[in-house]
Amino acid sequence: MCNRARFDGEPETITERFGAEWLADKPRDNRFDPKELRPFGRAYVVRNEGDRRGLDVMEWDVLAGQAKQAGRKVAQTNVRTLHLPQWRSLVTDPANRCLIPLTEFCEWAREPTDLGDGKKPIKGEMWFGVTDQPVFAIAGFWRQVGDQRYFAMVTCDANELVAPIHPKAMITILRPDDHERWLTGSYDDVLALQRPYPADQMTVRGPVFPTRNLSSPA
Predict the structure, then answer these.
(1) CA–CA separation, 26 vs 55, rounded Å?
(2) In this structure, are residues 155 and 195 in contact, taking their beta carbons and an 8 Å threshold?
(3) How confident is the prediction for the chain on average, in pLDDT?
């Protein structure tokens, strides 16, 4: 469920759009790539710290590498059942809520496509955008473990555009007027905002196949 996302912009775009100031040193290492966000990767995150609205950088795995599946470490990137004790204790406190700025997010096509290149059919990438918000915010929450901070995106029911591709859920896109409510409101406010974004205000493109060079058949 949405384990690929992009922010195609500069941090100044976020500080201007969200009225945020830096809460951490700007990343300077080559591994930081917010334009191609994947599990365990780092991303720009907007959160409150006291009376300041700030821009931070966190890892996309709210369980901080503690989750395993079939013996392998897996990232907890998205959460939907907010009433469960391990999530409610975080979401109830506004200090642990955040916004994740994006310009696109990806879901995999439901069926593989035969590209006619002699290789096995593969599922393409379907990329979703928001027409009325070139940079949009995803509802999220975060926690600190040691000196590091980690976040997850909140999911909700899929709308009519996303459901044919990923019927189970979609990430919770917030309207600009709801940013403050998400960051400072009550637990009931959180539940009220956990809803699908209007499908007629979104676009989808794809499928695209970035790992295949269609001009060079096998």
Answers:
(1) 10
(2) no
(3) 90
Instruction: Please name the residues in contact with 102: beta carbons below 8 A apart, sequence gap of 6 or more.
Output: 5, 6, 7, 37, 135, 136, 137, 138
Q: Among candidates 138, 132, 130, 133, which has minimal Cα distance to 101?
A: 138
Contacts (Cβ under 8 Å, ≥6 apart) of 27: 42, 57
CB-hemisphere CA count at 13 Å for 164? 6
- Strand segments, DSSP code E, in 15-147 are 21-22, 42-49, 52-60, 68-69, 72-73, 78-79, 97-102, 104-108, 125-130, 136-145
Q: How far apart are CA 42 and CA 60, in angstroms?
A: 6
Average pLDDT of 93-109?
95
Q: Which of 191, 165, 62 is nearest to 108 (CA)?
A: 165
Neighbour count for residue 14 (Cβ, 10 Å): 22
Q: Supply the pLDDT for residue 2.
A: 65
